[in-house]
């Protein structure tokens, strides 16, 4: 079996896939569910409920506010307690809708049976209709970035989509939510992919899976033996293969140019496997996006596991279900250890983009002392975007923003490979992100003029 | 001998030609500069801090001379030199000028470790800008001082320092030139330039938290909760409440200090007032903390 991978850079962190063989459990309903209005990229949603309103599971509670935005549906039944602010993962307060949970009553029209609906059974679905249903269901990218999915399916007129690539790489250590989803719902995912292919009017679909998931590769290959349109692509293990641009390079061997170019400029639309499953449920089962697969993991968690979680469930409920936090100080990450963001409070809820809750203990979480740069060039070697991280970090620290822009800092995908590999433990990515933020706002200001 | 003579002659000739060329060029392409600009530059402190809004002292001098020709140098103030220097400049330019009142940087946060409990530990880049961009910081307050000292770094006059005990920056008002460098450096806009006031006395709200009262109070016990008591007690309409936060307009404030006594959380402070007149003991302790 020939293994593909992307061409430039990359690292291989230890895998720590502790929960790979643990079947998914349904997480218990929370007492109160918290729905941040800005849980996707783009404009925050606008609430359509008010205090005291009764809602059911699957009731629209906030509508899309602008083109790049997504509606939000209630994941619980109960009463709207208040529309207020609450802290998000960063600690800043954001507008939220809080719903007190009473019972578990679902909206009519959502098909809760586990029966597989095939494409052939619904010849009436047109591309436009599929996209419309995806848009209405509030589906956003479920790999972490939470970009509204329907926009990706409507490429700008200058670009033409040729294939859909399903991102089933899951290259971050610890996380196994996507893997479990593939093992448990492979057939649904394939139908979801077919729907996306029809929506984007393409003839070819790929599923990229890293070789550390042989069972998933085997299962999906078996299911697609007779299907000439879908190809399963086993990939060598390398981080950050789950990055859109890296995946496009690995699977179809095309390199996406520097921003503002996006994968569709080279003919590919990349969707996370979780998103594909959500598309299946939205189109075939009329189920809007309100629950997702999430891994709760960490070396010192008593019973790590994979959960089907209703969005809005606070982190503390899920961690309690796994036996609680280890003693002492802990670092709790929304996401994996490479790109996850540490949260300031366990009151933070699971949102559309929460693929994992990773708990690191005090000893693992601390950074090592910063040493001087020894000019070894390892960061340059591993940068998957072909940048020079040491240079960007220095320019950023000394506030040389014009030069920083010339050195293409906006191409940085914040994968953290540079900082991971640095033998001097230098805060390379921290510095780059700082400068990137300034450069991005300068570009934005310039474009507005 | 011949050797030496030739060298002297050749070099001498080159020198002569070069001198003539330089002379002609300097006459022909001479840039006429107002001699007053040089004079004024000499009067200015020469710190080139940029506090006046110009790139350096000569830029400021140019603007001053230009303004003098138009008859007014209003709005042009050297924050470093202050009143004294501006008077000298006005004399040199032969105009009179209304001197702007002295300003000083004030830190509008009193969230010391005692007042504002740390709920998390930050392990990233040790600058306020980076900390502000990654999250709310180590406390529950998303508005207050982060304590990494970006303002200290920005100050060219050694006038602002982090107090180790409180973890907050303190301004040395004798050294502060109100150039505004710290104001620009602070990612949370906590530092403000305010009127220094008579005998250095001033009253201000030492908080920038815009959360609702209960939330703000939970994060920090000396937070402004936006209750509006100060607004009601103020006879000079100097206080406004906006987004759960009180703000005192220093142009309207008459330093009656009624608001200081009224504030239930002690978020309003008075500086450089004689200690014996203090009524509220809590405020006394705060005052001594803030006072330099």
Number of strands of chain B: 8
User: What's the helix count of chain A?
Assistant: 13
Largest interface: A-B, 21 and 19 residues
Please report the number of helical segments of chain B.
11
Return the domain count of chain B.
Answer: 2
Shape call of chain A: globular
Specify the CATH architecture of the largest domain in chain B. Answer: 2-Layer Sandwich
Contiguous uncertain segments of 5+ residues of chain A: none
CATH class categorisation of the domain at 119-284 in chain A:
Alpha Beta
**Largest sheet descriptor of chain B:** 2 strands, antiparallel
Strand order of the biggest β-sheet of chain A: 1-14-13-17-15-16
The run of helices and strands of chain B is HHHHEHHEEHEEHHEEHEH
Structural class of chain A: alpha/beta
Helix content of chain B: 25-40%
Biggest pleated-sheet summary of chain A: 6 strands, mixed
CATH topology of the largest domain in chain B: Alpha-Beta Plaits
| CATH fourth-tier homologous superfamily of the domain at 119-284 in chain A | NADH-ubiquinone oxidoreductase 51kDa subunit
Radius of gyration of chain B: 27 Å
């Amino acid at each position: 079996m020939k293994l593909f991978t992307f061409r430039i850079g990359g690292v291989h962190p230890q895998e720590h896939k502790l929960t790979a063989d643990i079947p998914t459990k349904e997480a218990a309903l929370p007492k109160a569910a918290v729905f941040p209005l800005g849980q996707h990229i783009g404009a925050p949603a606008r609430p359509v409920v008010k205090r005291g309103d009764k809602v059911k599971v699957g009731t629209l509670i906030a509508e899309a506010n602008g083109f790049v935005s997504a509606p939000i549906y209630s994941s619980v039944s109960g009463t709207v307690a208040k529309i207020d602010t609450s802290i998000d993962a960063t600690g800043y307060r954001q507008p939220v809708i809080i719903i007190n949970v009473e019972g578990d009553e679902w909206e009519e029209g959502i098909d809760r049976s586990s029966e597989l609906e095939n494409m052939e059974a619904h010849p009436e679905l047109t591309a436009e209709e599929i996209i419309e249903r995806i848009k209405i269901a509030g589906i956003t990218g479920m790999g972490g970035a939470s970009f509204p999915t329907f926009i990706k399916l409507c490429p700008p007129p200058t670009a033409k989509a040729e294939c859909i690539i399903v991102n089933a790489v899951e290259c971050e250590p610890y996380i196994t939510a996507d893997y479990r989803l593939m093992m448990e719902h492979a057939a649904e995912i394939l139908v979801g992919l077919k729907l996306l292919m029809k929506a984007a009017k393409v003839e070819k679909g790929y599923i990229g899976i890293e070789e550390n998931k042989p069972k998933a590769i085997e299962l999906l290959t078996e299911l697609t033996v007779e299907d000439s349109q879908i190809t399963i692509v086993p990939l060598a293990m390398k981080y950050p293969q789950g990055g859109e641009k890296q995946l496009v390079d690995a699977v179809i061997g095309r390199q996406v140019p520097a921003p503002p170019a996006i994968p569709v400029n080279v003919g590919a639309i990349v969707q996370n496997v979780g998103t594909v499953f959500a598309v299946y449920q939205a189109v075939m089962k009329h189920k809007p996006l309100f629950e997702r697969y999430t891994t709760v993991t960490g070396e010192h968690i008593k019973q790590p596991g994979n959960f089907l979680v209703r969005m809005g469930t606070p982190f503390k409920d899920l961690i309690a279900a796994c036996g609680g936090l280890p003693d002492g100080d802990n670092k709790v990450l929304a996401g994996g250890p490479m790109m996850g963001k540490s949260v300031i409070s366990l009151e933070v809820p699971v949102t559309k983009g929460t693929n994992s809750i990773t708990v690191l203990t005090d000893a693992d979480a601390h950074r090592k002392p910063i040493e001087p740069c020894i000019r070894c060039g390892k960061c340059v070697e591993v940068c998957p975007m072909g940048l020079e991280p040491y240079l960007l970090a220095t320019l950023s620290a000394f506030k040389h923003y014009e030069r920083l822009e010339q050195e293409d800092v906006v191409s940085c995908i914040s994968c953290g490979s540079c900082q991971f590999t640095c033998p001097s433990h230098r805060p390379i990515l921290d510095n780059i992100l700082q400068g990137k933020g300034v450069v991005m706002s300068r570009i934005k200001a310039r474009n507005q003029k | 001998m011949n050797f030496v003579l030739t060298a002297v002659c050749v070099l001498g000739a080159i020198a002569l030609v070069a001198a003539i060329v330089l002379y002609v060029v300097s006459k022909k392409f001479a840039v006429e500069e107002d001699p007053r600009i040089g004079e004024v530059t000499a009067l200015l402190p020469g710190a080139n801090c940029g506090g006046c809004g110009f790139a350096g002292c000569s830029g400021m001098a140019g603007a001053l001379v230009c303004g003098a020709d138009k008859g007014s140098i209003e709005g042009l103030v050297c924050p470093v030199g202050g009143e004294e220097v501006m008077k000298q400049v006005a004399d040199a330019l032969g105009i009179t000028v209304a001197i702007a009142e002295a300003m000083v940087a004030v830190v509008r946060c009193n969230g010391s470790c005692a007042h504002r409990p740390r709920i998390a530990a930050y392990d990233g880049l040790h600058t306020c800008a980076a900390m502000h961009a990654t999250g709310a910081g180590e406390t529950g307050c998303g508005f207050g001082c982060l304590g990494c000292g970006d303002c200290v770094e920005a100050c060219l006059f050694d006038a602002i320092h982090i107090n180790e005990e409180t973890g907050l920056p303190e301004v040395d008002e004798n050294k502060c030139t109100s150039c505004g460098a710290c104001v620009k450096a602070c990612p949370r806009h906590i530092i403000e330039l305010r009127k220094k006031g008579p005998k250095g006395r001033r009253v201000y709200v030492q908080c920038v938290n815009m959360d609702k009262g209960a939330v703000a109070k939970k994060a920090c016990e000396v937070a402004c909760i936006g209750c509006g008591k100060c607004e009601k007690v103020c006879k000079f309409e100097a206080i406004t409440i906006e987004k759960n936060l009180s703000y005192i307009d220093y142009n309207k404030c008459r330093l009656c200090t009624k608001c200081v006594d009224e504030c239930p959380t002690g978020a309003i402070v008075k500086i450089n007032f004689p200690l014996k007149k203090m009524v509220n003991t809590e405020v006394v302790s705060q005052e001594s903390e803030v006072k330099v």
